[in-house]
């Protein structure tokens, strides 16, 4: 993005017009806009500007944020034409007028706060956890074994912070509310590609449907917009490959990763300090960690 | 949260609607190709119906057919034919690229998200450029054939 290449050292204070979309569910029919003049110092983010507005100019402004460091995924907004995290967007890189709107493709709760329910619904529907049949799922005895190569097959997609920005960027979702969306589909791949998982069949069946994965035509907008480098578009294409291979009965299919073998009763070397006491007394970890 | 409470809280859905796919705004090249692919696809389907109707005219006898053929040699229809061919070439080549990409080829493997992120869309870009060069080549050839050679 050209905006990031903005290399000059910023100094002093410039005044930025922040054009914020306003909507109050009890009094407004549709959203309007309001301009605020914000003095922007070096390094100021759009979220900082909203905090400034709320503190000094207009206490009635509503926005959502929490970590202000790009990890909680609360502050997704449609900022100057692209969906982004407000806390990770430098306001001075966007020019003298910055528009802030709620994320598209979601209902608006108030002002720039979207209701992320559509994403959460799809996310929870795809069983976003490791599924193992039998006893091991409910009463785990030990960890599963996984090689670094097997880890890299899904790790990138595990960095998703559920900010919902990719759903705002998706052109398919703009017209088809039933489409599962990039976030949920990427998570289908994330768990199905995990060598420890055994729930792939059910998960793939759930997205290999009319409003499922095949509505994606690779517009690439989700990947472009994702603030965490998760690359949902790549996950979705790899998932398509997985489904095609499954249907055709080709491709390697290994069973889920084995459970680690029982403790070999090895002796602790004297130069290695003893592990701290187990947090769960009597748990499997406790037996292993005891010197 | 209770269902009733939620309904009071949320405003009208801000679904972008059709504008979401016909207008790519500040997004990248692939998003524009997505629009072109759909537009050319719809255009080709529309043409298919016109084509069936047009060949059906032959049933109405020699004279009607000759008149129609003469009509197709007028400049408006020649330009139309050229646009049709350009749409066909783009749709076919871009469709091939999409088939490969959607089967997970030409995108590269998953990588660790270390900033600055290198996305699959970026890794795939050379193929998009190759597609555009190839499309341009075919369309230029067609232009030469239709506008220069034919008369
Ligand atoms: S894939 Fe990226 S944009 Fe989508 S919800 Fe996860 S972190 Fe946000
Ligand atoms: S406030 Fe947590 S991601 Fe922006």
**Which blocks of ≥5 consecutive residues of chain A have pLDDT under 50?**
1-5, 285-291
What name does CATH use for the topology of chain B? 3 helical TM bundles of succinate and fumarate reductases
The helix count of chain B comes to: 6
Q: Which CATH-level-2 architecture of the largest domain in chain A? A: Orthogonal Bundle
The CATH class assignment of chain B is Mainly Alpha
Number of β-strand runs of chain A? 7
Give the class of chain B from helix and strand content and strand pairing.
mainly alpha
**Portion of residues within helices of chain B:** over 70%
Q: For the record, what is the CATH homologous superfamily label of chain B?
A: Fumarate reductase/succinate dehydrogenase, transmembrane subunit
**Average of pLDDT of chain B:** 87
Largest two-chain interface: A-B, 56 and 46 residues
**Element string of chain B (H = helix, E = strand):** HHHHHH
Instruction: Provide the number of structural domains of chain B.
Output: 1
CATH superfamily of the largest domain in chain A: Alpha-helical ferredoxin
Description:
The complex is a heterodimer of chains A (291) and B (151). Chain A has 291 residues and is α+β, with helices and mostly antiparallel strands. Chain A has 2 domains: 9-114, Ubiquitin-like (UB roll); 117-248, Fumarate Reductase Iron-sulfur Protein, Chain B, domain 2 (Orthogonal Bundle), CATH 1.10.1060.10. Helix content of chain A is 30%, strand content 12%. Chain A has helices at 46-57, 117-125, 135-138, 148-152, 165-169, 171-175, 181-192, 200-207, 221-225, 232-248, 284-289, and strands at 14-22, 32-40, 76-79, 82-85, 97-101, 108-110, 113-114. Chain A has a 5-stranded mixed beta sheet. In chain A, strands 6-7 form a two-stranded antiparallel sheet. In chain A, strand 6 and strand 7 form a beta hairpin. In chain A, helix 2 runs parallel beside helix 7 (181-192), helix 7 packs antiparallel against helix 8 and helix 7 crosses helix 10 (232-248). By secondary structure, chain B is mainly alpha-helical. Chain B has a single domain (29-148), classed as Fumarate reductase/succinate dehydrogenase, transmembrane subunit (3 helical TM bundles of succinate and fumarate reductases), CATH 1.20.1300.10. Chain B is 72% helix and 0% strand. Chain B has 6 helices and no strands. The longest helix of chain B has 30 residues, at 120-149. The radius of gyration of chain B is 23 Å and the shape is elongated. The termini of chain B are far apart. Residues 1-9 of chain B have low confidence and may be disordered. The structure holds iron/sulfur cluster (SF4) and FE2/S2 (inorganic) cluster. Iron/sulfur cluster is lined by residues 160-166, 182-183, 186, 226, 228, 230, 232 of chain A.
């Amino acid at each position: 993005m050209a905006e990031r290449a903005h290399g000059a050292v910023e100094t002093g204070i410039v005044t930025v017009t922040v054009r914020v979309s306003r909507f109050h569910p009890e009094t407004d029919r549709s959203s309007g806009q309001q301009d605020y003049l914000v003095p922007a110092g070096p390094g100021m983010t759009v979220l900082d500007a909203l905090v400034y507005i709320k503190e000094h100019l207009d206490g009635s402004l509503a926005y959502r944020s929490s970590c202000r460091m790009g990890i909680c995924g609360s502050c997704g907004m449609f900022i100057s034409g692209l969906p982004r995290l407000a806390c990770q967007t430098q306001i001075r890189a966007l020019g003298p007028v910055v528009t802030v709107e709620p994320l598209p493709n979601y209902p608006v709760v108030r002002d720039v706060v979207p209701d992320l329910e559509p994403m959460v619904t799809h996310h929870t529907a795809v069983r976003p956890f490791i599924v193992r049949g039998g006893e091991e799922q409910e009463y785990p005895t030990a960890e599963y074994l996984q090689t670094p190569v097997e880890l890299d097959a899904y790790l990138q997609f595990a960095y998703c912070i559920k900010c919902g920005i990719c759903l705002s960027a998706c052109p398919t979702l703009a017209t088809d509310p039933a489409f599962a969306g990039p976030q949920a589909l990427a998570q289908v791949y994330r768990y199905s590609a995990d060598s420890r998982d055994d729930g792939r069949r059910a998960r793939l069946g759930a997205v290999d449907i009319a409003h499922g994965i095949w509505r994606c035509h690779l517009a690439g907008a989700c990947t472009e917009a994702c603030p965490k480098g998760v690359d949902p578009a790549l996950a979705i294409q790899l998932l398509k490959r997985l489904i095609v291979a499954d249907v055709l009965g080709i491709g390697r299919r290994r069973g889920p990763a084995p459970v680690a073998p029982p403790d070999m009763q090895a002796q602790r070397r004297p130069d290695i300090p003893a592990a701290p006491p187990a947090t769960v007394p009597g748990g499997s970890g406790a037996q292993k960690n005891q010197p | 949260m209770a269902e009733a409470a939620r309904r009071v809280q949320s405003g009208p859905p801000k679904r972008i609607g059709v504008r979401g796919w016909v207008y790519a705004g500040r997004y990248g090249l692939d998003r524009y190709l997505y629009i072109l692919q759909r537009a050319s696809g719809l255009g080709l389907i529309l043409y298919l119906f016109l084509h069936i109707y047009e060949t059906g005219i032959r049933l109405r006898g020699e004279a009607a057919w000759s008149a129609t053929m003469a009509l197709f040699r007028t400049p408006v229809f020649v330009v139309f034919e050229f646009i049709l061919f350009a749409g066909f070439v783009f749709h076919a080549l871009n469709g091939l690229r999409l088939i490969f990409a959607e089967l997970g080829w030409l995108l590269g493997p998953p990588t660790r998200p270390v900033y600055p992120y290198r996305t699959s869309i970026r890794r795939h870009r050379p193929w998009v450029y190759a597609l555009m060069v190839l499309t341009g080549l075919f369309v230029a050839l067609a232009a030469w054939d239709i506008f220069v050679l034919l008369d």
